[in-house]
């Protein structure tokens, strides 16, 4: 019954004339579908802010973290296996529309579900790529099963950045890359994606159009890859899109004057629409990296950042509420105001909703 209702609502939205503005509540739910947000609790009740936001705005997704970024001694969302199962159960029960429950579980040092909390350990991408594809399949089957059993249906992985800069700390230094050669990266990333598909988990390729040649970390500030980036960094995306394995891609906050002389990738129409959509043929959902990262937050207001991102072709905005905090209400009100003023086209909101609805079904 729920699915029939969703389809009916979707048809109502998309059958409106392009110039017709939906009622305020309907518009805000369409915007809500475009958000993935973080929250602080490890246990939820009916009055928890994230539960109220999911129910009011029909959020597209949430992202889970094990610890607070500024205080690693404090548990945020993930303490143990049983606790996580209870948390995701409550999240799903609160949602009237399919909810993406997301996590960064690449393996190695990038893992929110850690062995110390009782979860299965996944090796880093570098370690996985040192072994056979058959072994990789075993590893990623175990990962996918663990995620599914704990109610997580979206993993921000695999990382398909090429390890082109040995001095890169955020990708190469953390062993997040499968290597320097695109075909090898695609082979191992493809194995992970196959395991995810078999367990009904959405995988997310990152960080488009390439972060592996950078010297800086976009968590901390402006990252310019103009002099280090090369077109070979597009090859993993080109191949995985052609193989129809790319249903969701995450943008990078890197600035690359070779692609856009004015904006970092997350805010760049030239990068996200002209290159990713039109040249590479990507038809899935494009999600931003965390909009609170300093590479964006240091230089753009909330209004400007979200307006540029959505207009560039980003379908879902990620606000992890780790590096900073912005209420879901403020984000939605800001976007709604921009839509009503014409700064963001209603067609862009509809387009994003169509892609998101297809992904979540």
TrEMBL record:
Catalysis performed (reactions): Hydrolysis of terminal non-reducing N-acetyl-D-hexosamine residues in N-acetyl-beta-D-hexosaminides
PANTHER family in alphabetical order: BETA-HEXOSAMINIDASE, BETA-HEXOSAMINIDASE-RELATED
Domain Glycoside hydrolase family 3 N-terminal: residue ranges: 34-358
Protein family (similarity comment): Belongs to the glycosyl hydrolase 3 family.
SUPFAM superfamilies cross-referenced by the UniProt entry: (Trans)glycosidases
Record keywords: Glycosidase, Hydrolase
InterPro entries linked to this entry: GH, Glyco_hydro_3_N, Glyco_hydro_3_N_sf, NagZ_Beta-hexosaminidase
BP GO terms, sorted: carbohydrate metabolic process; peptidoglycan turnover
Designated name of the protein: beta-N-acetylhexosaminidase
Species annotation: Sulfurospirillum barnesii (strain ATCC 700032 / DSM 10660 / SES-3)
EC number: 3.2.1.52
Molecular function via GO: beta-N-acetylhexosaminidase activity
Species lineage: Bacteria, Pseudomonadati, Campylobacterota, Epsilonproteobacteria, Campylobacterales
Top-level taxon of the source organism: Bacteria
A Pfam family that the UniProt record links to this protein: Glyco_hydro_3
């Amino acid at each position: 019954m729920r699915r029939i209702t969703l389809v009916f609502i979707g048809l109502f939205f998309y059958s409106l004339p392009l110039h017709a503005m939906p009622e305020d509540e309907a518009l805000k739910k369409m915007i809500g579908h475009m958000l993935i947000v973080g929250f602080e609790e490890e246990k939820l009740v009916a009055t928890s802010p994230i539960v109220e936001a999911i129910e009011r705005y029909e959020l597209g997704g949430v992202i889970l973290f094990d610890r607070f970024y500024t205080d690693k001694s404090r548990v945020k969302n993930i303490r143990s296996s049983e606790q996580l199962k209870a948390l995701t159960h409550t999240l799903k029960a609160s949602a009237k529309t399919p909810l993406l429950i997301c996590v960064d579980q690449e393996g190695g040092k990038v893992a929110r579900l850690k062995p110390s909390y009782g979860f299965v350990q996944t090796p880093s991408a570098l370690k996985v790529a040192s072994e056979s594809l058959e072994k990789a399949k075993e590893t990623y089957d175990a990962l996918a099963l663990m995620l599914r059993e704990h109610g997580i249906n979206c993993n921000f992985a695999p990382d398909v950045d090429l390890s082109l800069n040995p001095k890169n700390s955020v990708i190469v230094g953390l062993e997040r890359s499968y290597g320097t050669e695109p075909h090898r990266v695609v082979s191992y990333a493809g194995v992970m994606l196959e395991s995810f598909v078999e367990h009904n988990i959405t995988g997310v390729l990152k960080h488009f159009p390439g972060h592996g040649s950078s010297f800086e970390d976009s968590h901390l500030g402006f990252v310019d890859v103009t002099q280090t980036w090369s077109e070979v960094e597009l090859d993993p995306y080109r191949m995985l899109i052609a193989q129809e394995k790319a249903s969701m891609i995450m943008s990078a906050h890197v600035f690359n004057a070779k692609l856009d002389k004015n904006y970092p990738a997350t805010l760049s129409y030239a990068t996200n629409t002209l290159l990713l959509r039109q040249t590479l043929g990507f038809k899935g959902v494009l999600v931003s990296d965390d909009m609170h990262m300093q590479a964006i937050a240091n230089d753009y207001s909330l209004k400007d950042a979200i307006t540029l991102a959505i207009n560039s072709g980003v379908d879902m905005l990620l606000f992890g509420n780790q590096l900073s905090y912005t209420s879901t209400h403020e984000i939605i009100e800001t976007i709604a105001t921009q839509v009503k003023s014409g700064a963001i086209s209603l067609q862009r909101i509809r387009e994003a909703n169509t892609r998101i609805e297809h992904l979540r079904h």
